[in-house]
Amino acid sequence: MPQIVENIDLEEAKANFLELKQHYASHLTFINQNIQSCLNSENKQLKEISLQIKNSPGKQFRPLLSLIVADAFGEINEHVHHYATAVELIHNASLIHDDILDDSPLRRGLETPHKKWGTKNAVLLGDYLFSVGYRQVLKTPDDTCRDDLPRVASLMCESELLQSDSKFSHYPNEENYLKIIDGKTASLFGISAGAGCLLSGGTQEQKKLMEQCGLLLGRAFQIMDDWLDYYQAGKKDGKPRGSDISAGIFTLPIIKMIAQASKEEKESLDNIIFNGDFIGFNSPVIKSIDEKYGITQDVLSNAQKYIKDSYELFEKATPINSKHHFEQFSQSIVISDPQ
Fold it and tell me: How far is the C-alpha of 52 from the C-alpha of 91, rounded, in Å?
């Protein structure tokens, strides 16, 4: 595997992320307990979903981002906890629905709800998580923060529809790709950072800056995940890699490749991708075109730029003693474990 992002050591990033989670462990524990309380039910499937989230929560990037930003602008309080809980519930709901749409068999190494209980029940489980997430956000005192979550949930749905309309497009472009990932992924990072700021004492103007900061990190996160889907296609690290591209969802590596490839190379790509035989970087054809045009390095440079821009924005907007944890967090975006 190539150097992921220049000047970021992968092992050091992993160690720093563990240190970061330990630093905020008491707050994350409260958020996770709150999630379990929200999902407390006699229903068998809800009990199992609750147990899955408890035992395999993922990295919890979004609540952690809220905590870090809140820590920078004031004190982490119960309102920040409730908002972070709401965001994590909405995020998990969206994963259930995403897995239905993509017919994914695995998530975080576990069987997905629609494979386990059927599509109808999985839809209802996702809807239930959405509803209890909205109930949590109503416990926060600020109208703008309360309005942000349903706005972003709507945007996530719109972006999913846009992605569906763009499948197997012969003319994919980066502008459309960024619009999709901003709506599906980065927007939730954005409001996580914005709420952490405002609910801990920041101003509306500072909230807007932190939303942009979170959005940039969310972009970098999704670009890295899409690159891994391409680079490790055919492998399994908790979820099947290469599934997006074989389903006609063209992410940044393929978009850049199609834009730069010769006519003959595009024909070779068509034969691989449109026949559903995509095996990513393991394919000699894909690897050859990637190395010829520097596709991987170009994609990783894009992610690096968003990480750098986000850090610089945070650096300008926050007190000098708050930057260390955000730097650790921004570097952790490159970690390749399943989310």
Answer: 14
CA nearest 211: which of 195, 198, 194? 194
Which one-letter DSSP state was computed for residue 142?
A: -
Q: In angstroms, rounded to a whole number, what is the distance separating the alpha carbons of residues 210 and 217?
A: 11
Residues of the chain under the 50 pLDDT cut = 1-4, 338-339
Distance between CA 259 and CA 175 in Å, rounded?
13
C-alpha to C-alpha distance for 172 and 166, rounded to whole angstroms: 8
What number of other Cβ atoms are within 10 A of residue 267's Cβ?
10
Residue 135 lies in a domain: yes
Work out how many domains the chain is built from and give that number. 1
d(CA 31, CA 324): 23
Residue 311 is assigned to a structural domain of this protein: yes
CATH of the domain at 186: 1.10.600.10
Packing angle, helices 119-137 and 44-55, rounded to 10: 70
Report the pLDDT value the prediction gives residue 322, as an integer from 0 to 100.
72
Tokens of 123: 């839809």
8 Å CB contact between 134 and 86: yes
R_g (Cα) of the chain, nearest Å: 20
Q: Which domain holds residue 225?
A: 10-143+157-330
pLDDT digits (tens, 9 = 90+) for 288-331: 999 999 999 999 999 999 999 999 999 888 876 678 899 999 98
Return the structure tokens found at 257. Answer: 């490749």
So what's the pLDDT on residue 242? Answer: 63
> How does pLDDT run across 201-241, given as a tens digit for each residue?
999 999 999 999 999 999 999 999 999 888 876 665 555 56
Compute the distance between CA of residue 9 and CA of residue 44 in angstroms, rounded to an integer: 43
- Any domain includes 4: no
- 97 vs 246: CA distance, rounded Å: 19
DSSP per-residue letters across 30-49: HHHHHHHHHT--S-HHHHHH
Domain annotation covers residue 3: no
Residue 107 has a CB neighbour count (10 Å cut-off) of 23
